[in-house]
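To whoever is on call:

I kicked off a structure prediction for a single chain this morning and the downstream step that reads the tokens threw a length-mismatch warning. I double-checked the sequence; it's 114 residues and nothing unusual in it as far as I can see. Pasting both halves so you can look.
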Amino acid sequence: MNLVAVEGDVDTAADAHASEDVPPHGGGPKTISPVDQQTFAGINGRLIVTKGEDFILANCASCSAACYAGQLSDCSSFWMINGIPVCRNGDISQDGEHVFSGIIASHQNFVNTN
């Protein structure tokens, strides 16, 4: 079982955009916020992140790509909100340029799901 991801948790992006003149850049922890795909279910005063929740890849000089939480993972097979699986610790986000390492659920430590 894995912790459920909530607003403010992060997924870490690898550097990208390398070219002959520019080294890879733009990586680091990216905050999943604001959560607006669903606006009623929360834990500890923070909204639960569902698969596909969009967030902006801030602090990258070469893009301001939309990212999608948990998009490269199955997410929870047990708990859904409005028919959409909730994201868990380790689920991997996606954008068009950066590779993510998996959501780090750090804003709540007591609600888990499969």
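Update from on-call: the warning came from a stale cache, not from the record. Cleared it. Sanity check on the structure: The chain has a mean pLDDT of 92.
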